[in-house]
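Case study 2.
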Amino acid sequence: MSGSSETPVYVPGACNIGTEEVTARRRAALAAAGATLVLGGLLVASGAPRESRFLVGVPAAMAAVSWLQVRNSFCVAYAARGVYNVAQPLGMASPVADAAARGADRRRALRMIAGGVAVGVLVAAGLFLVP
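Prediction:
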């Protein structure tokens, strides 16, 4: 997050959420990571077909994207909508007026989504290889 720890600042392509929003993303990341572990464990323990283990890639990707949002103080959904929230109550958002800033936000969001999908694929492939 840019700016002092007391006053977050919106920075196009770098920071579009503040402390409350980061906390919400952290909860989502923990929930998705837990779902990944539970689903993976159930699929292996139940003897489900190995191909079904690729399902674990979905919550794993969600967890990865959520962790990236926490780490970067950046929400991909807000970027897609062209809004930001660095100092308002949770769920509130202000429009990003500048087209170049919206473009920077969307490019950042796409990179984060790609990173999350890559993690999901790796986790799923790893679980597929478990005997």
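The CA atoms of residues 59 and 85 lie 25 Å apart.
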